[in-house]
Every structure is written in structure tokens, then in C-alpha cells.
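Re: that backbone. C-alpha cells:
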């Protein structure tokens, strides 16, 4: 009798490689602080109380920390995403009722993140598969804003409390904004060709026959590919954070976005919209701004605006959304981000 098919198991050799890699990553992460301290203050002989020494230490420590976090999380998420195809995601979202569909879409947006460059094909695919517009927009809001890199890096910088609060508020915002946009019945402001797209054949799942060796190889290749693309932006973001951390006076930020400024949160959101960065690039700046005295809600609202409402992403979405829908999208999501910022400032 032929044995029933089962999920691929991790063989001995891939398991050993994975264990060694995990041990090496953990060792490097734990040793980064003492090694960088010795290099900056010992080898370079910089004064830890001087601005230059403080800025150089911030830059080197954050560079190593963020690269290690990126390597680990990109690898793990790529292996997990090898079990999810876009077709499977569409199948899970199609036919869901309002509320439940928005919640599932937002949750899938976290575990199957799409960057802005893939927002257009994802949007077309979901709508063409019969996924309601509001549910699709919940996915597109959650995907860039509440992603695995942001959560892991927030945990590394501020602890589990902030990371969990960010996750809960981001998911809530994605669900509520999607429901509001869905109830407005704005399908008339979607470009007509989106609804005319036809998906061919059955739902495909090209990842189901992958072996664990292939999945681990995919993870390694994705780490190399993503780091190769984002490292200049990453260094610029960390460099800006180091400059702010070392040289920009605290009074500058406290004057315009400090705790006593009632418009600090909306100003931070407006400043974030024209910018473009991913979570890895913006979080060092967020950390530096928080260290200068900005309230956590103000800094996180700024980060949310950068990753969820960036001008380049809106330009890309213009291919499938008419200007009126983009304006409503920005208004609803922006209002939610401002409310989230005020909430964070009130409870933290």
C-alpha cells in the first residue's frame, strides 16, 4: 500500500546547519555591545562623554544590531512565506464577511508582507479574485505598517511592551480603516481595468513541493538580496539617527514636538508622509528622536506615516486607484495614525 503524502521533514544536515547558524547569530548578538565598546572607546580612543564618541558609538552599535536583526528575521520570514503563495492568500481572503475578513486580512498583512513595489499586483489579484475592496485595503494598510522587521526591532530597542502595543494598535487601525473604507462603497473610484482582470485556472501553490533544503536556501538568498538592495538606505537612516543623537540639541525637538505641544502628533504625521523608508531605515531615527525627548506616541506616529502613507507608495497605487480614493485613503489612515499617536502618548 502506498504511504500517504506528508509534509516534508527537516533532514539531519539542514537541521545541523540551522542549529549552527542560530548559535552563531545568538553569539554575535550578545557580543556586539562589549566588542563595539572596546573598539570605539579603546581602539579609536574616543571620549564616551563627547558628542563625536557618542555619535560614532550609536552608529556602529545600531548598524550591527539592525543588520543582525534583519538577517535573522528576513531568513525566518522567508522560510515561513515559502508556505504561502499570493494565490493562497487570495483564497483565504475571498468570500469573508465584513469584520472577520478585515481582521484576517490585517493578520495576513503582518505574516505575508508586501512592499510598495508589489502593492499594485497584490491589489489587482485580490480584487479580481472577489476579495471586497475594504478587506483588500485592510491588507494593504497592515502589510507595510505592521511588519515583522518593525516588531522585532521595536522589541530590541524598547522592549516587548512597546512592540505588542504597536502590533495591537496597527492591526486595529488596519481593520477599522478597512471597514470604514469598505462601507463607503468606493469601488467606483478604482480604475475599471482592475475589475476586468481575470485569474486563470485553479488556485496554485508552487511552494508545496519544496524541500527543507530548498526553503533554507531561499532564506539565505533572500537575506543577500534584500540587504544588497537596502544597505545604502539603512546606513543613511542610521547616520541621520546618529547625527540627531550626537549633535542636534534636545530643545529643538521639544520646542516643536515635545510633550507640551498639542499638535506634535499631527505635525509628525505630516512630516512623515513625504518621506520614504522601510521600517529598518526609519527605526534608528525613531530611536534617536525618542532619546531626544519626543513622546513615544509622537515618534511612532511619525514612523507609521513614513511606512504606511509614503508619497512613493501613493504614486504607485495611483495606477489602480483614482485620486479621490487615494485622498480618502490618506485621510482615513492618517486620522487613525494621529489617534494612535495620541493614545500612545496618553498611556505611556
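Recovered sequence:
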Amino acid at each position: 500500500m502506498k504511504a500517504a503524502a506528508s509534509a516534508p521533514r527537516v533532514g539531519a544536515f539542514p537541521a545541523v546547519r540551522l542549529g549552527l547558524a542560530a548559535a552563531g547569530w545568538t553569539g554575535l548578538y550578545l557580543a556586539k555591545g562589549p566588542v563595539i565598546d572596546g573598539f570605539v572607546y579603546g581602539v579609536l580612543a574616543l571620549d564616551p562623554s563627547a558628542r563625536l564618541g557618542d555619535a560614532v558609538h550609536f552608529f556602529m552599535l545600531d548598524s550591527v544590531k539592525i543588520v543582525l536583526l534583519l538577517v535573522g528575521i528576513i531568513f525566518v520570514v522567508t522560510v515561513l512565506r515559502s508556505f504561502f503563495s499570493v494565490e493562497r492568500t487570495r483564497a483565504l481572503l475571498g468570500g469573508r464577511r465584513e469584520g472577520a475578513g478585515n481582521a484576517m486580512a490585517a493578520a495576513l498583512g503582518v505574516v505575508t508582507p508586501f512592499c510598495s513595489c508589489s502593492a499594485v499586483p497584490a491589489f489587482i489579484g485580490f480584487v479580481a479574485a472577489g476579495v471586497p475592496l475594504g478587506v483588500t485595503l485592510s491588507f494593504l494598510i497592515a502589510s507595510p505598517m505592521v511588519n515583522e522587521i518593525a516588531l522585532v526591532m521595536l522589541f530590541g530597542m524598547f522592549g516587548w511592551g512597546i512592540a505588542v502595543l504597536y502590533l495591537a494598535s496597527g492591526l486595529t487601525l488596519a481593520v477599522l480603516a478597512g471597514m470604514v473604507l469598505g462601507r463607503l462603497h468606493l469601488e467606483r473610484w478604482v480604475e475599471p481595468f482592475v475589475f476586468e482582470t481575470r485569474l486563470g485556472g485553479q488556485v496554485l501553490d508552487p511552494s508545496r513541493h519544496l524541500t527543507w533544503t530548498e526553503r533554507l536556501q531561499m532564506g539565505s538568498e533572500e537575506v543577500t538580496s534584500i540587504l544588497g538592495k537596502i544597505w545604502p538606505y539603512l546606513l543613511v537612516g542610521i547616520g541621520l539617527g546618529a547625527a540627531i543623537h550626537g549633535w542636534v540639541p534636545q530643545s529643538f525637538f521639544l520646542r516643536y514636538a515635545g510633550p507640551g505641544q498639542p499638535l506634535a502628533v499631527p505635525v509628525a504625521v505630516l512630516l512623515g508622509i513625504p518621506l520614504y523608508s522601510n521600517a529598518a531605515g526609519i527605526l534608528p531615527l525613531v530611536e534617536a528622536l525618542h532619546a531626544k525627548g519626543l513622546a513615544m506616541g509622537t515618534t511612532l506616529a511619525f514612523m507609521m506615516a513614513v511606512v504606511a502613507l509614503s508619497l512613493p507608495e501613493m504614486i504607485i497605487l495611483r495606477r489602480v486607484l483614482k485620486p479621490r480614493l487615494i485622498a480618502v485613503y490618506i485621510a482615513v489612515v492618517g486620522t487613525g495614525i494621529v489617534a494612535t499617536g495620541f493614545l500612545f502618548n496618553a498611556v505611556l
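The chain has 16 helices and no strands. Residues 1-8, 198-207 have pLDDT under 50 and may be disordered.
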